Predict the structure.
Amino acid sequence: MPKKALLVLLGAAALVAPPVFGQEEPNVFIAGIWPDRIIFFDQTTDAFTDGLRLRHGAATGSASYTPDKRRFYVITDRMESVEVIDALRQEVIDEIKLSTPEKRIRFFSVYPNHDGSKVYLNVNVVQLQTDRFIQEHEVDIMVYDLGAREVVNSFKFPKEVGGGARRPALHVSPDGSSLYVIGRDLYELDAATGEIKRKKVLSKPLLAGYGELRGLNLTQTEPGTFYGIYRTEDPILKKRIFGVAKLDLYDMNVSTFELGPQLKVGRFALSPDGKRGYAGLSDMVVIDMEKQRVILKKEKFERGRTNNSMIVGHDGTKLYVSGVGDTVWVYDTATLELIKTVYAGGDFMMPPIEIPNPTTSQN
């Protein structure tokens, strides 16, 4: 089928755990479990080790992190706190709270710059009056300087970008001058003002006759590079089809290749060598990324409530599936057969993220 170079990314795209490139082999996962724990999973033993206790209760959603994965930013306290974790030291080293008796400021998401000195906070601000709550609409993003311990800037998204009920995902450029917004279209914003610098239209099919392209969760495989599964409609057969999309954020470029009739897949994981892709989770397929075709398919891979995290192990032989409940399901990547299950000791609140081994990383 013809290739296309367009993808619609609806709402806030979920950025899930990327492998680390150019460092020692990442063979440890960091994850959050109920009620207030951060734990670590060792791929070499397929076992969890004790971690640390958060200051303000359970983690809310996925964590964000600096490119070296030394610092993690976890939303807690009913979305009113951001706790900063040093993964090497395995401890909470800082926290951000902005609520006052007059205002409740909740955090939808947090995005650090590359050295972790500042974070961009996607906020919801509500005035707490005697007889009512009034939501403010003047600010979407607050920029917090962790050294100065204060908000140093704030702005509202341009109307076409999002804000309010629509909370797009952000990514900070390496030099800190731009914010990339992943939504229905792709935008580069000025990090100081929030104004649009560049725009890449993704919300229209490239080829006439094809249906609207829809994308789900994105997996970051290296800084600025994301993969995801898209779906569209064949103009001839009028059938739903799916494929893989690659988003090069800094180049503002999207490329895709089609794989065939639609399956129940939305999550994507890439092997460390980039040669195999895995799409799931209600169904599951193994993709030859070089030949751009499905080489193994298993329908009804998961039934009922599906997981939301897939990570290919550091040596490419195991696929770790988790994120819902208290279990990690370990599969053989060659056969998609279950090898074992590992219990986390509590329900996942923050899905696993692959990190460099804390015992071998340098300070």
In short: Residues 28 and 237 are 45 Å apart (CA to CA). The radius of gyration is 20 Å. The chain is about 0% helix and 50% strand. The domain at 15-67+174-355 is CATH 2.130.10.10 (Methylamine Dehydrogenase; Chain H).
